C-alpha cells in the first residue's frame, strides 16, 4: 500500500475540504491534532448553538473520535456510536463538515448517524443501549467492529444482555466505554458508582468487566490523544471482545457547558421566537406537582430524563417521590407495576418514542393486571428536528391494543390539567396522557359537552363532523372556519379520551353526513381507525375518513413543516375535507 500523501498542514479548513479526512489525520503530528481538536470544538459550538442539537456529548468525544479514526479504518472497520447523539465529530471526520450548514434541517444533515448520509454510519440509531448488540451481530457476521457506549447508555438492560453474550464470544469487538460520569443524574444506580470506583482506583480495585471475563484497558484520560490511541491500538490486537474505559468530560472546552452542572449543555435548542403559550412539559410538571400535593399515593418515574420530562419541580418538592431508574424504560414500567401492586399510583413520564421499548411491560405487567399506572408521553406525534426515530407517532396505534388501557390527548394546557387529574384518579387500570413537543395552544372553550366529548363548534349545517385528537383541535377549528366560508358546515368535537372514544361521538356522527378524524399519529390503526369501528359498531351509516400520518419513517425537519407536508395544518385539513365532501356529494368512494 502506498503511503498516504500528507497535506502541507492539517487544520479545520483543509479537513472540511478533504473528502477522506481520516487519511490526513493519520499523517498529522501531535501538535497539529491538538490544535485541530480546539478548532473542532469551536466549529461544534458555533454550528450547534445555531442549529440546536447535542453539544456537551460531542464536545466530550473530540479526541476520542480523532483517535478512533486514526487507529481504525472506517468503513472497513465499523464504528458504532451508541445512541448516536455524539456522532457529530465522526461526521466531521468523514467528509460531512460542510453539511453542518443545514444541521437538523429538512433535507440537511441528520443529528444522528444516518446510513443514507454516509457509508461510515453503520446503524440509524438514537434509542440508547443498542450498540453492543449491533456489534455482537456484526462481529458474528465477520465484520471488525468498534462500539462506543456512554456510561448513561450502559445503564440500559440491553447493554447487559449484549455484554453477557460478548464476554464469551471469540470474535474481536472493541468496546469503548465513554465515561463522562453523566447520563442525566450521575448518582443514579450502581453502574455509575462502579465506574466512579474504577476511575478512583485507577482500575486496580474490583472490576465488573474483568469479573465477567473481558480484558479491560483503563481507565484512560479520554482527552489525552496519545494515551487513547495507544489503548485502542492495544485493544485492536485482541481476537475477542475487549473493554477500553475512557474518561472524558462532557462539555469539555466550552466554559458554559463545563459550568452547566445540570447536564453540561447535553442538548441545546435552536434559538428562535418563543412560542406564545406555556410549554406542554412545563404545564405537566406544574399540574403533577399540585396533584401530588393532594394525593400522597402519587409517585413518578423517569428513565434518565428528569428535566426533559418536566419532573424537576416534583423532585424538588418531594424528592422521595421521584424515582430515576437510568436509561431503563422496561424497568421503569415493570417497577411501576410493582409500585401499583404495592398500593401507589405511579406516573411514568417518558417520551412517546421511548415507551415503545417497554411495550411488553405495558401489556403484560401493567395491562394484564389492570394496574393503575399513568403513562405521560411527552414528544408525542411529530417531534421535528430529531427525525425518524424520535417521532412519537406510533403510541396510539400500539397502546390501543392493550386491553383496559385508556388514552387521553389534551388539546391545550387546561385540558392537560383536567385529564391528568382524571388519569391519576383512575384506580381501575392503566391510563395514558400524550402531548407534543413545544408550546400548548391557547385554551379552547367547549360550546357543549356530551359525556367526555367536548363540542368546540357546531357547523351552520350538519354536513361534516370533524373529530380531532389533542392539539389538532386548534388546527381543526381554523379549517372549519375556512370550510364554512366555502359553504360546508363543520362541527368540531374533541373526545379528549382518544381511546376508547366515548359513544357520544357516534350519536353526533349520526347527525352528520360525513365524519373526518385528524390526529398526529399513524393513520392506520390509530385514533381514527378506532373511531370508525365505534361508529360502525353503533350501526351509524355515516362514512368515517381518518386523516393522520402515513405509516412511514419520517425524516427530520420542523414539526410545523412535517405536519404541513402531511396535510395536518389548517390549509391541509381544509383541502382534504373539501375534497372528501365534494366526493361524498358526488356519491364517490370515501
Ligand atoms: C431508550 C432511550 N431512552 C432515553 C434516551 C434519551 N437520551 C439521549 S442521550 C441520553 C443520555 C446518554 O448518556 P450517555 O450514554 O452517558 O451519553 P453522554 O450524553 O453522557 O455522552 C438520554 C437519556 C434515549 N436516547 N434512548
Ligand atoms: C434527550 C435526548 O438526548 C434526545 O432524546 C433528544 O435530544 C430530544 O430532544 P428534545 O428533548 O429537545 O426533544
Ligand atoms: Mg455519559
TrEMBL record:
InterPro entries: Dxylulose-5-P_synthase, THDP-binding, Transketo_C/PFOR_II, Transketolase-like_Pyr-bd, Transketolase_BS, Transketolase_C, Transketolase_CS. Keywords: Isoprene biosynthesis, Magnesium, Metal-binding, Thiamine biosynthesis, Thiamine pyrophosphate, Transferase. Mg(2+) binds at residues 151, 180. Its cofactor is Mg(2+); thiamine diphosphate. Thiamine diphosphate binds at residues 85, 126-128, 152-153, 180, 254, 329. Pathway: Metabolic intermediate biosynthesis; 1-deoxy-D-xylulose 5-phosphate biosynthesis; 1-deoxy-D-xylulose 5-phosphate from D-glyceraldehyde 3-phosphate and pyruvate: step 1/1. It catalyses: D-glyceraldehyde 3-phosphate + pyruvate + H(+) = 1-deoxy-D-xylulose 5-phosphate + CO2. Binds 1 Mg(2+) ion per subunit. It comes from the Bacteria. PROSITE patterns: TRANSKETOLASE_1, TRANSKETOLASE_2. Residues 278-442 form the Transketolase-like pyrimidine-binding domain. The keyword Metal-binding applies. One of its GO terms (molecular function) is 1-deoxy-D-xylulose-5-phosphate synthase activity. Pfam families: DXP_synthase_N, Transket_pyr, Transketolase_C. The keyword Magnesium applies. Its EC number is 2.2.1.7. Homodimer. Catalyzes the acyloin condensation reaction between C atoms 2 and 3 of pyruvate and glyceraldehyde 3-phosphate to yield 1-deoxy-D-xylulose-5-phosphate (DXP). Belongs to the transketolase family. DXPS subfamily. This is 1-deoxy-D-xylulose-5-phosphate synthase. It comes from Amycolatopsis magusensis. The gene is dxs.
Amino acid at each position: 500500500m502506498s503511503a498516504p500523501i500528507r497535506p502541507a498542514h492539517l487544520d479545520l479548513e483543509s479537513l472540511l475540504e478533504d473528502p477522506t479526512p481520516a487519511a490526513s489525520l493519520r499523517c498529522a503530528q501531535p501538535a497539529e491534532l491538538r490544535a485541530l481538536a480546539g478548532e473542532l470544538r469551536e466549529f461544534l459550538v458555533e454550528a450547534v448553538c445555531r442549529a440546536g442539537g447535542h453539544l456537551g456529548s460531542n464536545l466530550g468525544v473530540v479526541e476520542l473520535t480523532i483517535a478512533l479514526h486514526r487507529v481504525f479504518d472506517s468503513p472497513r472497520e465499523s464504528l458504532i456510536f451508541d445512541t448516536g447523539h455524539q456522532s457529530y465529530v465522526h461526521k466531521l471526520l468523514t467528509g460531512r463538515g460542510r453539511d453542518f450548514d443545514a444541521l437538523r434541517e429538512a433535507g440537511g444533515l441528520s443529528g444522528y448517524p444516518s446510513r443514507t448520509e454516509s457509508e461510515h454510519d453503520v446503524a440509524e440509531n438514537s434509542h440508547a443501549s443498542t450498540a453492543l448488540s449491533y456489534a455482537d451481530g456484526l462481529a458474528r457476521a465477520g465484520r471488525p467492529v468498534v462500539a462506543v457506549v456512554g456510561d448513561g447508555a450502559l445503564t440500559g438492560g440491553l447493554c447487559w444482555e449484549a455484554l453477557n453474550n460478548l464476554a464469551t464470544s471469540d470474535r474481536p469487538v472493541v468496546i469503548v466505554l465513554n465515561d463522562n460520569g453523566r447520563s442525566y443524574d450521575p448518582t443514579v444506580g450502581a453502574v455509575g458508582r462502579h465506574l466512579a470506583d474504577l476511575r478512583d482506583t485507577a482500575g486496580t480495585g474490583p472490576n465488573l468487566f474483568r469479573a465477567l471475563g473481558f480484558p479491560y484497558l483503563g481507565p484512560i484520560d479520554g482527552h489525552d490523544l496519545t494515551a487513547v490511541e495507544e489503548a485502542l491500538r492495544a485493544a485492536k490486537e485482541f481476537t475477542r471482545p475487549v473493554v477500553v474505559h475512557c474518561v472524558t468530560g462532557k462539555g469539555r472546552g466550552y466554559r458554559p457547558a463545563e459550568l452547566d452542572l445540570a447536564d453540561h449543555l447535553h442538548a441545546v435548542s435552536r434559538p428562535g421566537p418563543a412560542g406564545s403559550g406555556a410549554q406542554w412539559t412545563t404545564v405537566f410538571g406544574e399540574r403533577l406537582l399540585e396533584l401530588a400535593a393532594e394525593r400522597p399515593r402519587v409517585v413518578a418515574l423517569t428513565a434518565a430524563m428528569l428535566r426533559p420530562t418536566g419532573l424537576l419541580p416534583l423532585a424538588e418538592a418531594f424528592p422521595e417521590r421521584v424515582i430515576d431508574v437510568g436509561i431503563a424504560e422496561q424497568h421503569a414500567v415493570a417497577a411501576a407495576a410493582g409500585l401499583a401492586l404495592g398500593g401507589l399510583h405511579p406516573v411514568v413520564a417518558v417520551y412517546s418514542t421511548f415507551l415503545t421499548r417497554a411495550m411488553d411491560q405495558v401489556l403484560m405487567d401493567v395491562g394484564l393486571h389492570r394496574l393503575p399506572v399513568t403513562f405521560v408521553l411527552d414528544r408525542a406525534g411529530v417531534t421535528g428536528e430529531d427525525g425518524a426515530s424520535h417521532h412519537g407517532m406510533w403510541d396510539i396505534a400500539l397502546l390501543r391494543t392493550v386491553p383496559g388501557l385508556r388514552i387521553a390527548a389534551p388539546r391545550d394546557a387546561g385540558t392537560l390539567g383536567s385529564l391528568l387529574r382524571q388519569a391519576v384518579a383512575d384506580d381501575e387500570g392503566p391510563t395514558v396522557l400524550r402531548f407534543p413537543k413545544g408550546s400548548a395552544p391557547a385554551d379552547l372553550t367547549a360550546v357543549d359537552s356530551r359525556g367526555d366529548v367536548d363540542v368546540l363548534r357546531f357547523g351552520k349545517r350538519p354536513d361534516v363532523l370533524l373529530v380531532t385528537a389533542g392539539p389538532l383541535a386548534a388546527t381543526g377549528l381554523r379549517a372549519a372556519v375556512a370550510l364554512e366560508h366555502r359553504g360546508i358546515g363543520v362541527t368540531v368535537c374533541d373526545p379528549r379520551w382518544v381511546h376508547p372514544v366515548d359513544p357520544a361521538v357516534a350519536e353526533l356522527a349520526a347527525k352528520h353526513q360525513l365524519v373526518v378524524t385528524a390526529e398526529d399519529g399513524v393513520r392506520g390503526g390509530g385514533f381514527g381507525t378506532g373511531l370508525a369501528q365505534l361508529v360502525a359498531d353503533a350501526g351509524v351509516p355515516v362514512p368515517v375518513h381518518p386523516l393522520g400520518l402515513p405509516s412511514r419513517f419520517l425524516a427530520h425537519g420542523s414539526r410545523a413543516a412535517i405536519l404541513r407536508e402531511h396535510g395536518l395544518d389548517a390549509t391541509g385539513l381544509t383541502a382534504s375535507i373539501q375534497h372528501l365532501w365534494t366526493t361524498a356529494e358526488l356519491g364517490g368512494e370515501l
